[in-house]
Amino acid sequence: MKPTTAILIGAGDRGARAYAPYALKNPHELKIIGVAEPNELRRDKIKQEHNLSTEDCFHSWEDLLTTEKTADIAIICTMDREHFGPTMKALELGYHVLLEKPMSPDPKECIAMEQQAEKFNKQLTICHVLRYTDFWSTIKKVIEDGKIGEVASIQLNENVEVMHMSHSFVRGNWKKKEDSSPMILQKSCHDMDIIRYVINKKCERVSSYGSLMHFRKENMPAGAPKRCLDGCPAAQSCPFHAGNYYLGEGRGWARKFTEDTSNEGIIKALNETDYGKCVYQLDNDVVDHQVVNMEFEDGATATFSMCGFTREQTRTVQIMGTKGELRGNMTENQISYYDFLTKHETIVKFDSPTGGHGGGDLGIMRDFLIDIQQSDRSKSVSSASNSLSSHLMAFAAEESRLNKGTSIELDTFYNNLSKQYSVME
């Protein structure tokens, strides 16, 4: 049996390091036969790793997605605001599509993409990779098996970790919602999705609060220059000093903005890119903390907290049921659930995951290749229709946050959006 063939659109961190390597490790299952990537160094790296010809490598998705379909699937990992165009075109041409989250920063585009997949009967899978981890799939099974009774409430915390916050959402590609997405969508659509997934009930309304509290000009150290390497007087007292961080414990993050990770290469990049700028003097506008309240059908509730000011980068969860309680910590890679009647606690420890996102990056690739063989698209764990629900929760949460926590009714919110745009008409 021949391997599934794929084109890769966007060879950044997620495309090149999370999904494309599956083809190198499993050549009998997947083969990359084309790439579109505007960055020449990234494009050439994919060319070499996957033994592509020059004719198989393109600067833009428009050049790759011509009127002729050349592969079975398209893996799309462009920046958030560049998801819509290639996804719509790929589905029209007959590709099954694996799309990096979020679907789009525009809710109308999300609806249109879901409709496009239905129109052409193609698999559109959104990379909600948490669903494919042992951690969350086991939690879902514990709930489905009734071991903690009916879920009454969920508390989920996303601890972004303070230096990840400064790297990705203050200095990095996702610092401005107009260029990328609101924080609740870009970083936390995973969390909206996993709450919806494990509770398996319709979310009826949401409310939300949050702000950009700290990474603002008024909080910069006195006399701080625009760039950290230009003699900042707070070099030894500021945890965000770019030189100290990226040439020290944050050296691993430096590879995300420079191919040359020698001291000289990093210093050059810090003098030329936003990653070398003072975190208090950038044009970032996404929130550094946010909370979301959710009410589901039958009265179940959930609270979600995303905060950039944490020591660890992890997710912690507490699920309270009518017969017991479940707790989990992704960094510790274990869960426990407690029975109110027997007073017994069951602890489940998972093996060290293979691959990123607790093994989810590997799991979603494997499942996607199985899903495209199925005639019933609704069976996919992360189909576009399933993903759309959690995306709308994130969009509604941001709408609420911008309106001082006003409660948003999801049905009304969706119906208003649906009237504005439909590719099915």
UniProtKB/TrEMBL annotation:
<comment type="similarity">
    <text>Belongs to the Gfo/Idh/MocA family.</text>
</comment>
<dbReference type="Pfam" id="PF01408">
    <property type="entry name" value="GFO_IDH_MocA"/>
</dbReference>
<dbReference type="InterPro" id="IPR000683">
    <property type="entry name" value="Gfo/Idh/MocA-like_OxRdtase_N"/>
</dbReference>
<feature type="domain" description="Gfo/Idh/MocA-like oxidoreductase N-terminal">
    <location>
        <begin position="8"/>
        <end position="126"/>
    </location>
</feature>
<dbReference type="Pfam" id="PF02894">
    <property type="entry name" value="GFO_IDH_MocA_C"/>
</dbReference>
<protein>
    <submittedName>
        <fullName>Gfo/Idh/MocA family oxidoreductase</fullName>
    </submittedName>
</protein>
<dbReference type="InterPro" id="IPR051450">
    <property type="entry name" value="Gfo/Idh/MocA_Oxidoreductases"/>
</dbReference>
<dbReference type="InterPro" id="IPR004104">
    <property type="entry name" value="Gfo/Idh/MocA-like_OxRdtase_C"/>
</dbReference>
<dbReference type="InterPro" id="IPR036291">
    <property type="entry name" value="NAD(P)-bd_dom_sf"/>
</dbReference>
<feature type="domain" description="Gfo/Idh/MocA-like oxidoreductase C-terminal">
    <location>
        <begin position="140"/>
        <end position="353"/>
    </location>
</feature>
